[in-house]
Amino acid sequence: MQNKGKYYITTAIAYTSGKPHIGNSYEIVLADAIARYKRRDGFDVHFQTGSDEHGQKIETRAIEAGCSSPKEFVDQVSDTIKGLWNLMDTSYDRFIRTTDDDHVKQVQKIFKKFYDQGDIYKGSYKGMYCTECEAFYTESQLKDGKCPECGGPVHPAEEEAYFFKMSKYADRLIEYINTHPEFIQPASRKNEMMNNFLLPGLQDLCVSRTSFKWGIPVDFDKKHVVYVWLDALTNYITGIGYDADGNSSEEYKKWWPADLHLIGKDIIRFHTIYWPIFLMALGEPLPKQVFGHPWLLQGGEKMSKSKGNVIYADDLVSLFGVDPVRYFVLHEMPFDNDGVITWELLVERFNSDLANTLGNLVNRTIAMSNKYLGGVVADKNVTEAVDADLKAVVTGCYAKVEAKMDELRVADALTEIFALFKRCNKYIDETEPWVLGKDESKKDRLSTVLYNLVEAISIGAALLDPFMPETAQKIKEQLNTPDRDFDTLGTFGVCKNDTKVTENPEMLFARKDLKDVLEKAAEITKKQKEEFERTQAEAAKNLAKAGLAPATPVKAQESDEKAEAIDIPAKEEITFDQFGAMQFQVGEIIKCEAVEKSKKLLCSQVKIGSQVKQIVSGIRKYYSPEEMVGKKVMVLVNLKPAKLAGVMSEGMLLCAEDAEGNLALMTPEKDMPSGAEIC
Length: 679
Description:
Layout: E1 6-11, E2 14-15, H1 22-40, E3 44-52, H2 56-64, H3 70-87, E4 94-97, H4 101-116, E5 120-130, E6 135-137, E7 155-164, H5 167-179, E8 184-185, H6 187-198, E9 205-206, E10 208-209, E11 225-226, H7 228-233, H8 235-238, H9 250-255, E12 260-264, H10 268-282, E13 290-293, E14 296-298, H11 313-320, H12 322-331, E15 339-341, H13 343-373, E16 376-377, H14 385-395, H15 397-406, H16 410-431, H17 433-436, H18 443-464, H19 469-479, E17 499-500, H20 514-545, H21 576-580, E18 584-594, E19 602-608, E20 611-617, H22 625-628, E21 632-636, E22 642-644, E23 647-649, E24 652-653, E25 655-657, E26 663-665
Parallel strand pairs: 1-3, 1-12, 2-3, 3-4, 8-13, 12-13, 14-15
Antiparallel strand pairs: 5-6, 5-7, 7-9, 10-11, 16-17, 18-19, 18-21, 19-20, 21-24, 22-23, 25-26
């Protein structure tokens, strides 16, 4: 295998406020698939992940959990995170913790270096503070008086703090982003950072705190601790041996700059504005690329314990297995739009793609080889025209997968691999080995057909390995074929003649019954709800014991609570025919973006049956574009198209409005198919 050089990939380090859900686990699986692929493709890879362990929220969580110290709490949560990452079969090279001694020492040095060279100054910060997000906001940044990120409560706060002079490096960063179009991906994230933050002008950034103690101390001003983002972001260099005094390790010189920072889209501002500026101040090169991946939504909503819609990786693994969960999260996440996870979709993908397309293919090939050829396959060179097309598809697959992976389109790469397996299934239907097996004169043709299948599947298994490593290994073992380097995948016929497949094939994937899975999922949800309520009650007790008032939990309105009644002026009566002229249908929002020229409008692509309509709605104050994707909504379909803020709208989303003018989308009470008539 050709050595293609080094490749350094990182994930965001997981915050230790609690157990990561499947949306968080998606990131580590995505990074692992990329890292494994790069290794197989000839790169020398270093893959780093870890846990972010400081901050006021952690200090509070430790008290709520009844721990003797924040360190005891983060030790427990970090072990949980690491356990999940190991469960998901991820091949990281270092799991860094921000409480690691080498990291703490370097953060203190970096802070002092910034201060000495005039990038940091002491001042005071006053604003509205969100403890959950550990961030200050101005009044104008709040949404309905609440945190614009989590929607939780904020409170006035003022404290002495050190600030980093962001504006000093802003023009340099703008120039860098403009001359390096590959730096921020997808491109939509770049536009957001430029238009919303950089071009309007950067404010100086608070980089220390005095209102709590759980953080890395500023060694020359002990009442300050380093603010969580300066602490956390520097892990990407401290974890590979960076030294602020100029004595960085050979490992650092080898791996930096990072080839890819893989992060969630919600923290892209920190990684594409603050982090590059910190690096500029240190005189270090910038990472080659930052990719802000979309979210994995549960039934179209962001996962939240308070909503009771959280799904965890270990629960999914208990029902489906590790590789099927890896396959699902990788396959169902679009490049730049949020993905959706539901129990129904999990079962559908498991049965159709894994049990049928792949599992059945491998099982049939082995079974027919044993039945007709005693398990021994060989290329007897008895070919027909159909063979050439199979070979072309199979040997061309690597190039297609490579092109997708170069663009980080991992879901599309998996689709190409499964197109190979589907072509193999079609080849079985075309050649009918069961018919050839009845004719002794066709035995050499039958052997050639089954050899072609074994060879094709072994190439597919090699490509599948980064995404589903356990499954790929099982396939190779059952076919008794060697591991394939990627640079051999364009050659058909590498498997040795007289290869003997296993006599006792193991079923790779047994089909799942939806009813059974839903019953088990309901039990999991019930246990999670009980555990959430128990821990909330314990947290309140522990906070009270510590002399602290518990935060008021944000909870959904109970079904038996009645909203205040509202009377509105009556409109002129209409006839039944007038009502019948209006066409109402259920739509599914598949994409949503803010309208650039408006502060109120969102532009949604709404799937209605087999059609997609573009609908502009004045609901930006109440819903983010990310929240909209995946929602089932009620649509007035036959409204005459009109332009709003220069954007064409082809219908209307129905909303309810309360006495204060707050809007809520009207959604079907039960899950209805896209296009269903509302009557």
